[in-house]
Amino acid sequence: MSSTASAATGPLTDEDLVQLLTPAGERVAHPEYDAWAADLDADRLRAMYRDMVLTRRFDLEATSLQRQGELGLWAQSLGQEGAAVGSGHALAPQDHVFPSYREHGVAFVRGLEMTDLLRLFRGVDHGGWDPAAHNFHLFTLVIGSHTLHATGYAMGVQRDGLVGTGDPARDTAVVAYFGDGATAQGDVNEALVFASVNQAPVVLFCQNNQFAISEPTTRQARVPLANRAPGFGIPSVRVDGNDVLATYAVTRQALDRARSGGGPTFVEAFTYRMGAHTTSDDPTRYRTAEQEEHWRRRDPIDRLRTYLERTDELPEVFQAQLAAEADAFGEHVRTTVRGMGRPAPSTMFDHVYATPHAVVDAERAWFTQYEQSFVDDGRETAGGHR
């Protein structure tokens, strides 16, 4: 098979992507998904635009903070704002989100204090936020494991009678976000099995940014990743992940199916990671500048901005206010992170389990004794042992 044929039919094909907004910012009709985006008036679109702009500002600030030694590591979401914000806007308040570690845009839409996300990457907290506050669970660094957590949670929601009641304020769906590389993990495939046979109200949302760290999708699959789900009995859809409108419409339909008792859906949002996998990565070692430029011209923020400008729905006063808000937000992120205190080492034992646990208690006691030993032999100074 030639490379051209492989691109046209393999995992990188764009022939069957749901798209409502072209890379040039032109609105195109879709026979199925136009109805699911019909509620997106100018105010909603400006809100999406704002959320993408501020998510990117947060991401760039976090990257800079890591480069300055303020964070140990950072996973960038640069270029993937359309998939995150579009799907995030489709969620209902009662829905539950199980993120991987690149869903900063979803967190922003859900209303999290964004600096709490950075507590994990600064090493001052195991997680940094209360999952129950916004139904947004902790980041998962173990690739794919949370898809099982999400599916199990969805099965619990189903058994609690919170699916198919017809009450839009009560019916609940669960979303699990993961990357293309995670689809090769056993956990994800097991989650597909459980979700299918139990008709769990879960949306399995794959952000296919085309690289599992440094391995391209072409090294992971011969066909589009969404093609795997029907083998488990789960309907799937591929969407242009850089099109915030289409992502919203596709996710909204999938969530509606889940809440109404129609079971799971696999969504593949085809996008591109314009930044590095993490700040410890060098993407120039495995992709070309030409490829990066190709996808830079498909930037999700530029795409929506062009559309809003063409329809005279992006007034200068709005843009000026947003720029000022972004600057203030950036200052808030920098100041808050640098002001995070240094927790006592013993706090690592807090919140390991919801209830007291004998093994954890024993380890805490041993650690306390170990720390005290440095004081007893005179080697301790203020701020901790050396």
UniProtKB/TrEMBL annotation:
Range of residues in the leader sequence: none
Keywords: Oxidoreductase, Pyruvate, Thiamine pyrophosphate
Cofactor requirement: thiamine diphosphate
Pfam families per record: E1_dh (PF00676)
GO biological process: branched-chain amino acid catabolic process
EC number: 1.2.4.4
PANTHER family: 2-OXOISOVALERATE DEHYDROGENASE SUBUNIT ALPHA, MITOCHONDRIAL
NCBIfam families reported in the protein's UniProt record: PDH_E1_alph_x
UniProt-recorded name of the protein: Pyruvate dehydrogenase (Acetyl-transferring) E1 component, alpha subunit
Biological source species: Cellulomonas flavigena (strain ATCC 482 / DSM 20109 / BCRC 11376 / JCM 18109 / NBRC 3775 / NCIMB 8073 / NRS 134)
